[in-house]
Amino acid sequence: MLPARPRRALPRPAAVTASAVVAALAVTALTCAPATAASAVVAALAVTALTCAPATAASPAAPGWSDAGWTGPAAEATFHRLSTYPVYLNRPAGTDAAAETVAEISAVSEDGKTFVHTDALARRIGFVDITDPAKPVGRGTLDLAADLGVGAHAEPTSVAVVGGYVLVVVDTSESFTAPSGVLVVVDLETHAVVRTLDLGGQPDSIALTPDKKHAAIAIENQRDEDATPEGADEGDLPQLPGGSLVLVDLPDATAPAGWALRPVAFTDGDQALPAFVAAGIDTPQDPEPEYVAIDPTGSTVAVTLQENNGIVLVDVASGEIDRVFTAGTASVSGIDTTKDGVIDQSGAITDVPREPDAIGWLDATHVATANEGDWKGGTRGWSVFDTTTGEVVWDAGASLERLAVRTGLHTEDRAAKKGVEIEGLAVATMDGTPYAFVGSERSNFVAVYDVSDPAQPVFSQVLATTNGPEGILPVPGRDLLLVSSETDEAGAGVRSAVSVYGLGEAYADEAGSPAFPSVVSADAGGAPIGWGALGALAADPRDDQRLWSATDAAYKDTRLLSIDVGTSPAVIDRQLRVTQGGVGVTLDVEGVATRASGGFWLGVEGATGAANEIVRTNAYGAIVERVGLPSDVAAGLSKWGVEGVTTVVDDEGEHVWVALQRGLTSDPGGLGGTARLGRYDVADGSWTWFAYPLSTTSVAGDWIGLSEVVAVDDDTLAVIERDKLNGEDAAVKRVYTVQVPAEDPAEGTVGALTKTLARDVLPDLRATAGWTQEKLEGLTVAGDGTVWAITDNDGVADATGETVLLDLGSRTSVFGKVSTTTSASVTATTYGRAARVDVTVTGAGQAPTGRVQVREGSKVLGTGTLLVSGDRGTARVTLPSTLAVGTHRLTAVYAGTSTLAGSSSSPVLKVTRATPTVSLGASAWTVKKGARPTLVVVVSGPGAKPAGTVTVKVGSTKVATKKLSGGRVVLTLPPVTRTAKVTVRYAGSTSYVPVTASRTLTVR
After folding, report:
1. Three-class secondary structure of residue 510 per DSSP
2. Domains (ranges, CATH) in the chain?
3. pLDDT tens-digit map of 387-406
4. Bacterial Ig-like domain location, by residue (predicted)?
5. Among 117, 202, 218, which Cα is nearest to 159's?
6. pLDDT tens-digit map of 26-43
7. Which DSSP string do the residues of 853-916 spell out, in sequence order?
8. Which distant-in-sequence residues (6+ apart) come within 8 Å of 745 by Cβ?
């Protein structure tokens, strides 16, 4: 063990040390010091590079990170999430809520108020009113067979809106070898079918020219993944008939009867076109068009051939093929390519076909593609092509994989396949800025880029979505972005939804809080720290704005993660590898607590009752002790075991509290009647147990249990109690407190606890305007008194993957405390001289301990430790000498302790301009007549070097006005003819008052 150090004074009684207290010995600095135990030395060596200093910044290629930390757009250019609408809420009457229903490709009415989407699973299209984007309202659906009359096998593949009509693209194929499809024109208001046009093949996407005079539809005639062509492998090409393109002429938007189709062949019968062969298309006789987009001039259609890894450009007016070129291959390094439970970013893919899916025009000569891949490729990113040459001018490389890791959205399950799987892409200009929106099908996000320079996209923002974002629909007229997600698995609590975002300050007040991401990771070893499934929190006493968490069994090779919550978003910037005998271990860590003497207690849930345990590590993460639950308790556990851990140190020594998620099979009421809280006495190894009364649920398949325990003080515990429901169904996400009885229950019996609601967290989760997360699992009180909670994202498995870190407010607001009063005084000062704030904190009969901060806005200007006398504490805080001239409205803040409420005072500091010193020098002050001496003027002051101008007079004649450079001016005077006074006047600045200096120049 390392030698003990004096503990820093904390803003809470010394008895409260765990869940809110990290090792007083270490964690911030001690990971760089040697340990005496052999295992500790090995562990320290393994993690030193990751923990001795904050991680380095990511390279410019990694979106969202720079030397300054997480970067994003200015507030006025931010997309704010306004709502998340589950489309099953818009199901037809009598339909089971659990029946699959999705939102895939979408369009919007010309007034931007009606959202229309395809639903291939339910074989219908849906209508949603987004007049109020924060409160979407379902407006019903149309069944393709019953309402559109297109047959029982029909599936919608795409949709567009022209004037008062919806163009519904429908696949009516009864087999892969006999593809067919139609374009159904539907009245937007009445939902009546106006016209049906035969497309001659199985269609995929549709796009409109900017003037809506033409449309283009990709006729894919898709392959059968289970078919085996002669001489090829299963799912290979060719599988004829080959695909094509259909142009739709829309001369009058009000008269669909006059609309006509113009087929554009991509093959010559069963033979390949020469242009496709020359371009090196994979299987040119079976092109399989996937996605279409039309350039800003309305003259050219770009078509992706996903399976064939190519792009075709077609002239709208003539229907002629202008150019065909391959999308080429890419090699990407620095990514996770192995499904092994470890986020290992040292892998690479080499010469992989891009196989683009969605495509969009950035300008008249550049297209961008979402490189999803299909059967041979997928480069985990997106690319920009120059359409005049067919060359790649920009490629995302590994940056989106890194973005997923950085934001906790990495899908380890897909690491060996196509990773983030970039499928959707849309381009639009909003508020004068051209944006590209790029969707990750597997990591559930949309990355936003400024494409003002098409050849150099600049990352702007990342938006969280629900599972499988498919349709990306900008609505420029309303500065909205709508993202529809195609994954719907009611049994797993994953539902298809439409996410609505608004751009700019006009939507800021309607937006959810906190913004996504609420947590990101910094770099270690040149790559972002991998993280996810954070189900535990503990505070760090060495930094009032730092927490600790851990990865659970969603990942192998368990890590403890240090989170800086003093920034927004919070930053994971250090990690400790949990080891035993110098070797990394995998634990299902569901709780983290800290020890006054150094190190951690981990609450570990086991696959069986006997495997549940609490694990003690040293400050390096090396395991030094494993403590199993009593055999009678372990025998009564099913799969729901240890879910939280905290520690308390009092006069009787160190105690570890654990929360068991549910009751024992032997408890009254079984698993659902009560949960268990247990106290382990570290000194004698004894356990004491208490029964916590659980709420009840009547929802089939649901249950309620505990997810966390944290010591509020030595007699008060707080727990998280939650149900298993998410989204619209979520009901119980609460923080309760319990008082520990003054006397323990008799040996062999279980004591009773009474709970008090401290905070219903469900409104906080709903306030994000996103999918309401199920697993509210971590809770702690930071050193500054802020109560933090966090959701476990399950490693993006059967979950949206979004992690929500919640600032629930002060300890006082959540748990309630004895009141305090803070007063502060400060005297005026001049620029460049440090002011001092005298702070006094008075408690109601209790001595306030800890520290005070002096802030201006959210910026901390200084801190001081209270010196206690009776029920009063005083501190003198010295402010920076660099405060600008003007009135500074300060806030002196006392965060409080476990028993004392925080309080604040608002002194006003006036900083006036300082008086500078003007020094004059010359090459000579006694000169001959006609000489031109050199004058040196130096203006100095107590702060930054003065700026502004000086005016020079010789006698009564002004000879020059010059700007200071570095606080000085050097100039040559005009020829002098007689003795005169040289007068220099410094005009002053925002920081300094004007000053005049003079000296006599003698002529002889």
Report:
1. helix
2. 39-52+530-812 (2.115.10), 820-912 (2.60.40.10), 917-1003 (2.60.40.1930)
3. 999 999 999 999 999 999 99
4. 823-908
5. 117
6. 333 223 322 333 333 223
7. EEEETTEEEEEEEPEEETTEEEEEEEPPTTPPSEEEE-EEEE---SSB--EEE--EEEEEPBPP
8. 688, 689, 690, 751
